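Budget justification, computational time. The allocation requested in the original proposal was used primarily to generate structure tokens for proteins on the priority list. As evidence of use, we reproduce two of the resulting records. The first is shown immediately below.
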Amino acid sequence: MVQKKKGDGTPPPEAPAEPKRRGRPRAYEPDVALGKALDLFRQGGFAATSLDDLSAATGMNRPSLYGAFGDKRELYIRSYQRYRDEARAAMADIFRGDASVRRQLERIFATALDIYLSGEDGPRGCFTVMTAGSEAVQDGDIRAMVQDALRELDKAFAFCFRRAKDAGELPASADPVVLAQLASATIHTIAIRARAHAPRGELEAIVKGALDVMLRK
């Protein structure tokens, strides 16, 4: 038997191929899928958004949706929490800022309008007002979330007005709690009107009028 020598033209044995890494497609990433679900629920609400809609938007079939998020209601609740987290992050620095109370409130309402008027298919308004408020009638968990969202907004506005009163920007007779409720009511009003396609200029005029009333001495 003749042994083959090195360099005789015989190719070396191939190294075993590394196993291919199997990763989830981007559409299956929970954070991305949750964002797409949030967009759908903001646009159509709970009842009008079907599992087929959610599957098409996220790129996930029904078993994958159930495995990642639970049922449709769980996905809705997680979407609502995501909306609240993002809105809170957008507003946090403004509420903590040291600008005059009028300038601070102008920035808060302007940011709110940016959120409410966003959407590829038209203005989507506020998740709390436009869709969660309706679901809160029958669902205790969603109702608790809505109530918490309303209290949180009232407290944030009350902090602004209390600080402004202490700084002499408001009269001694001003009630920060009542003013906070008026500011929250203005937020809810412009959210509804934004969803109804009211132009931004009209909404800004409402905000200006409300601030004139709330901040007069």
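The second record produced under the same allocation is shown here.
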Amino acid sequence: MTSRHTIVYWLSTGFLAFGMVAQGVAQLSHTKGYVDIITHLGYPAYFLNIIGVWKIVGVVAILIPGLLLAKEWAYAGFFFVMSGAAFSHLAAGDSGKAVAPAVVLLVLIVTSWYFRPLDRKIHSRLSKETA
């Protein structure tokens, strides 16, 4: 892995982790803005608890060494929740300004996943064990 790949990975992962933890804490706190948004989109307020907890757990899985399968699940979960947020905003007729945070996080998710080091990928570990 080149140093450029390493820098891209850690920058995207750092911003992703910050964004997900910040959202997770705000969602668990039931910040008025988040309650308004989630109910506007047609979801019950208790979804904030579920999403908030899993965002924080996902960040832990992505940042700590090991737990390769948990990392894959975390990236997938992040992708599903952010793509769902983007499409929910579009379906509700919200402006691009409302969709933008989800799209930015989607870009960070895909970038972090794509540039992650070999020791953070499942297939690299499996290929080493079978070699």
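A brief technical remark on that second record: The first helix runs from residue 3 to 28.
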